Amino acid sequence: MTNKVIFFLAALLLLQTSCKQSKTTNDARYLIVLSMDGFRKDYTEKSNTPNLDSIALIGVRAEGILPAFPSKTFPNHYTMATGLYPDHHGIVNNSFMDPATGLAYKMKDSAARLNPYFYGGEPIWVTASKAGLKTASFYWVGSELPIKDIQPDYWKKYDESVSFEDRIDTLIYWLKLPKKNRPQLIMCYFHEPDAIGHKLGPESNETLLMVEYIDKLIGDLCRKISMLPYAKKIDLIFTSDHGMAQLSEDRVINMREIIPDEWLETTMGENPVFNVGAKQGYLDSVFNRLQKTEHVKSWKNSDMLERYHYGTNPRTLDITVEADLGWTINWRKSNNYLYAQGTHGYDPDYPEMHAVFYAVGPSFKKGYLHPAFDNVNLYVLMAEILGLEPAPNDGDLEKVINMLNR
Question: Is residue 161 part of a domain?
């Protein structure tokens, strides 16, 4: 065991205590949640991650955290924040169309992304704010706009160029604020290792090196937190929205060769999951053609798989189309289209879509391995840690309560 790891374990011990906390002492509770986009469950087995390994020894590691369908970034970050399935909170894909208004939602369209109309449910920072807690968010989906007329007390406009080191320094700055101004809930987002996983694939050396870099940053964050005078009151969760699957050029389905444009009203989404709106009179034609297409699964949204918890929201349109694992759906005009080397969005049951979950602090058991669980339960877990009464949600505290000291 290296000196750095020994020091890190000592720092974590300062964060760990087995004492119970009264639900009436909200001022004694602090929670930091860091989401590392696209951090697949098995990356830690393929990389050198001494800091996350140390957290597993002194805190909690889950065998995986399963995304909601579709296993895409925006739907899942908002599911983690609200405890609602995408069908229920309304962010049903990374891009979608709202039939009631004709408005389109796209990640890179700031006007749409910042429109409160699209966001249902109650994010954890809203729940916390209602209870009188200060909150902060560094790039979490939904935090750049008021939801239920409430925004985090501290928040940042999304700017991917801000370094991860600067993000960590900002978290520490917030934690050093005077007690009356200090956020008790901090949500933070890293866009890696998702970006490199898309570009070069989940099996690339570059992706695994990025995982090791993020692990180093986690160590830096924990060491800085351990130096705070109230470090023993801080809980930390390190998790992700989904995993990543390898793609290849010989597994591409060109949908324009299969479904004529004149049959379609609109297609929304991105590889490998699309929401399809058929023109009047063409629904069965589109669906029957999709049913005969190899390496594609499709459902009329009235007949969606129950375990997907999807298809009742009008924003899912008429039909949902999902490629088989590792396959690309191309709905563009080019026949040579390949969505980089990796992607996600597939069936949440695929192990490749499972993500990491680690936690440490006074609320969490020591050296506890928790079974894999659905990320829809994260909201109620956060509410329990902070002593909050949760808003209506789809989660089940009993699915995650055993990781907590009680």
Answer: yes
